[in-house]
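note to self — DONT lose this again. spent like an hour looking for the file last time. sequence + predicted structure for the chain T wanted, 412 res
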Amino acid sequence: MDDQLHGVRDELQRDPYPHYDRARRAPGLTRVPELDAWLVARDADVREVLRRPEDFSSANSLLPDVLPSPAALAVLGGGFGGRPVVVTSDGARHQQLRAPIVRGLSPSRVAAVLPYAAERAAALVDAFAPDPKNGRVELMSAYARRLPGDVVGRIVGLDPSDVPAVVHGGHRAEELLFRPLGEDEQIAAAEDVVAMQHILDRYVRERAARPREDLATEIVASVTEGTEGTEGELTLEQRHEAVAHLQNLLIAGHLTTTALIGTTVLHLLRHPRQWELLCAEPDRIPAAVEEAARYDTALQGFRRITTRPLTLAGTELPAGATVFVAFGGANRDPVRHPQPDEFDITRTPERHLAFGFGAHGCPGAQLAREQLRLTLGELTRRLPGLGLAADHRVTMRPTMIHRSPYRLHLTW
């Protein structure tokens, strides 16, 4: 039965858009067993939920699809974290957790990191494109999984030598909680997650003792604000809180942008005329970024829990009901986006929900957009003959939180 459920869920997650379309056409809300939630797929309804965080709690927004085995949980018990983070908090606690991230990802901080991001983007392309007329690359491993980790690591204050292990640990955390793995693989994934957490704990303790101008220091300061203790030393609870906060920030900071890079390049190359237009008119890159984010949203949605009995879209919901707020569904709603199933970088843009909205809107949206712009600038300028490799089928990862190709083989 579990295998059957995983199979049905995989089918939905690999291509959720037909499900969204049916849900938008149906009266009221649609109950989707594979999500164990009511599906909210219309733009207006999604925005209503996001405007009412007091009625739709985020406390259980990141429920895992898979519960790790007791052996894997025992391994995780030797790590750090496991505390509420910004995406799973409400009210004053959410504002407290969000504040250092907003400061750390301010427009000035993003602007300051862009020269480094441009340098890394160019260097990564240099590594696989020495011959601009004849070559091939698997873009996810050679570029998309590397640039975002380097950039967010720089903002957080990680040494470049620690970034690969932290990025790997983030990917393994996602696999452990959202993919069915055998017990041995669960244990191995848990060990990678714990290794990442111990690296982050080292940074937490170092920044407590010697603050710097980086986001790690901002987060450490936020967990010690208003508390008494020995200067430069943290309690075990404070270390757990800071590591949980850092882990969530880093995973959100690199996994989402990695996914966006993959889907953006995929859809541009699936529409060769639009790719050619972009190469000829690079001023269209910002619009292409917005269209790609709308068309195939990396973060398909989050769960919310009703805090009281209420009515949404004509459907009566009791307190404690789970809704899945589908950003990806809203972004294909024809009421807001004409011909929503067409990928068109020339369309007149409407405000989409790829980066959320309201109190929980993504504070890293600008950083993600800038990395996508840099990526498209590099690829259109240096590899205008880029295309999808005919000998490799593109398979989407079955997930609702970081939707992207497993691999993206390209030729030129």
